[in-house]
Amino acid sequence: MSDSGRPPTPLEDTPLPSGEDDPAVAGPKSATEAEAPQGFRGKLLRGVLVFVGLSALAFVILGKLVPGFWEAQTVSWRWPEFAGATALILPLWLLDALRYRVLARGFDLELGYLRCLQLGFLFHMAAYLTPGSAGGQPLVAWYLTRHGVPLPESLGISLIKPLLGMFVITFGGGIALLIHPAPPPGLERFLVLGAVLMLTLASGVGVLLLRPNSVARVCAWAFEQIARLPGLDRAGRFAGALDRSVEVAGRLRTRGLPFLAVNLALTIAWYAVGLIALGLVARSVGIGRPLHALSCDLGLFRALAIYAPTPGGAGLAEGGIAWLFGAERALALALGWRLLFHYAEIVAGLAVLVHTFKTPPRSPA
Fold this sequence. Notes:
The chain is mostly helical. Helix content is 69%, strand content 1%. A two-stranded parallel ribbon has the order 1-2.
């Protein structure tokens, strides 16, 4: 039974069409919608090529700028540490799935663990393959609506969960910067910029939860103005979902601080497990600096990586690795990090997406 007194909605095995049956968001089907799988294939292929290409380009540039860069890449892998990092990936995925499951309960939805695991794969795959990680939230919202979750709840889940992750990662980077024994010069400005962005997003969510009716009026006015522009008349169809959005925001507000504390605790646990796994990868390539300094460097790196504008931080993250951990082990550390934290989830996300396209939506029994 949910906090609101009505049983949560089970959605584990009841896939439905995306908001097409909802008059507030429905629109006439087109040939473009029928060709969505083909369009996705092209976009995903371009995303993979850009993601891998920028990472490779970063090392080509490092090879040109750093004398003896390629000759220095003679790392002897420590396989027990790398095996330990690999063993932590499954708990990391399960914690990510649990974050979706607990957050969904705040919207009176009961998502199964398998569904939540698939959401995590889809989100990270799309985030890694799109500039600024912008593709994760829309794909999660699409997947949820396709499986019967109303549009307002889908948008809430797809936005709030990554926002909590950004908050924790940015906060962790700030702490790492404060306690770092020798922080790299110039890093403060970058983290301050990220913190300002994160606080702006958090403020927007806070206003939505505290003053949902005011937000609804502003959004309704905005949709009305956009719909008057040439070629954008269909934008007005989303205004019909605003009343439900207000109801959803008000429902989430009633959960109070305990609900927020549980979600925040799960996010911190997910962040800590990921940091430990990344630290083991660093140890496996021979980075032997003291634990305190290594932990600070890892916290700074995670904060830098999430605000990189390139897909998955490709190129910039590799440069950050060379900057923070040394050029002589940059290639090995980047490969280990990408393999465990990115390539595995991209493959899993692609498999989920292919299965979703091949599985026709079914009406509830």
